[in-house]
Amino acid sequence: MPVHPLPIRVFHWLNAFAMTCMATSGWAIYNASPLFGFTFPAWATLGGWLGGAVAWHFAAMWLLAGNGLFYLAYGLASGHFRRRFLPLSPSGIMTDLLAALKFRLPHEAGTYNAVQRLLYILVLLLGVLAVASGLAIWKPVQLWWLSAAFGDFATARYVHFLAMAGIVGFVAVHLILVVLVPRSLLPMLTGRHSSSHEVSS
Amino acid sequence: MTTPRRRSQQDLSVHKRQVENLQRRLLLKEMLSLGALGMLAGCDLQDGDAVDKVLWTMSRWNDRVQAKLFSRTRLAPTYEASRITRPFPFNAFYPEYDAPDIDGAAFRLQLSGKIDDKRAWTLADLRALPQSGQITRHICIEGWSAIGEWRGVAFRTFLERIGADMTARYVGFKCADKYYSSLDMETAMHPQTLLALDFGADPLPAEYGFPLKLRVPTKLGFKNPKHIAEIFVTNDYPGGYWEDQGYNWFSGV
Ligand code: HEM
Known about the structure:
- The complex is a heterodimer.
- Chain A has eight helices and no strands.
- By secondary structure, chain A is mainly alpha-helical.
- Chain A has helices at 6-32, 50-77, 80-85, 90-101, 114-138, 144-149, 153-180, 185-190.
- Chain B has two domains: 4-69; 81-245, Sulfite Oxidase, Chain A, domain 2.
- In chain B, the strands form two sheets. In chain B, strands 2, 3, 6, 7 and 8 form a five-stranded antiparallel β-sheet that branches.
- The A-B interface holds A 13, 16-17, 20-21, 24, 29-30, 32-33, 35, 43, 45-52, 54-56, 58-59, 62, 138-144, 152-154, 157, 189 and B 31-32, 34, 36-37, 40-46, 54-56, 58-59, 62, 69-71, 74-77, 137, 139-145, 217-218, 242, 245-248, 252-253.
- The structure holds protoporphyrin IX containing FE.
- Chain B: InterPro entries: OxRdtase_Mopterin-bd_dom, OxRdtase_Mopterin-bd_sf.
- Chain B: Residues 99-242 form the Oxidoreductase molybdopterin-binding domain.
């Protein structure tokens, strides 16, 4: 039994690519009319100009949403979500959070501690929120009810931005942890433990 | 001419395969190093490379999806007068002081293409048609939006009056500022699509499109041409100023 089954690895890397396209093209769109008092550096944006960025955003969204739907269907149907993300209790989160802050939380490939479970569930919900608010600002007339669920077009735009910020924040922590625990990277590529840990698995 | 060309093509195909293999390996490496985006970032719809072709293809696909999503009867939300954005933003591909200066008395709206009665229209003729209006949100592709009030002739009424071929696919617009754009016939006939003469209670000022603007609350702002000089009906894709550079053609909201 691999640490990460093949479908999960495929979903993960397709999502990483799609999310990177969506965020960096989104930053270029944001720069055309910033919501806050800052802009993103041009080197971090995708598309070259507004038209290119919008084209990237509306091309990669199909990959993001299609991949996301298959992932959710797989996760629910195969029991992957139940096995990996549950059970989740407030006390478990507190215990593991304290341990993590003292750097005493062990990393076991394929088993997530309570803090990881919580973060993975939250970022999944943020992904759903980014897609829903994205659809609400893409089609504020045809999907007016979705837009209305976020207030109106203008407020949905803020929600969309905040969903992006939450996802990018998660990715930052996620990448720092991979740097701190480099042996967690290989299983997500090959599905298996790195050889030095093969014995213990 | 043909032989050397064919030989060089064969040479090329071998090279191409090698380059492709190399590219594939490089691509894999790039993906792993998360540097892939640095490579893709230059693809901007402007230089016709492979990635640009994918982006253009996806944009045509998005045209089709949006035409399916579009409902002829679904109305854009309308607002109370108190919600109108003041001052309303100016936006064009040139600065405000370059907005064309048009003599309303001499103005004639030209008609061409699949239209029965191509007689040119004066502003007085247009004002003699039934007038209506709405307060709706103008949404720019840049992301900002603003609420404004436009009044004028329901565009469908106008198309009927001039005997436009309503089975044609496109309605095109040529503007006095060299701008041009086009709409699908479905959107042109939407009940809120308006051949606007007034902004609020007054004739359109120069910066908002005097003397004629098409107000389409079911499209992004750049599909709302200002300073319209000519309207035509056609089955040949007319494109548009921004559309030809890569903005999505349908751009419905
Ligand atoms: C199906 C999914 C999505 C759809 C339909 C969507 C749609 C949109 C639309 C319509 C805009 C405004 C474009 C414009 O103003 O011309 C936008 C902007 C943006 N998107 Fe998305 N989006 C999606 C997913 C995402 C994701 C996953 C992210 C980030 C991880 C993201 C980040 C952004 C950002 C940062 C902006 C600029 C915000 C602004 O200033 O308005 N989007 N998106």
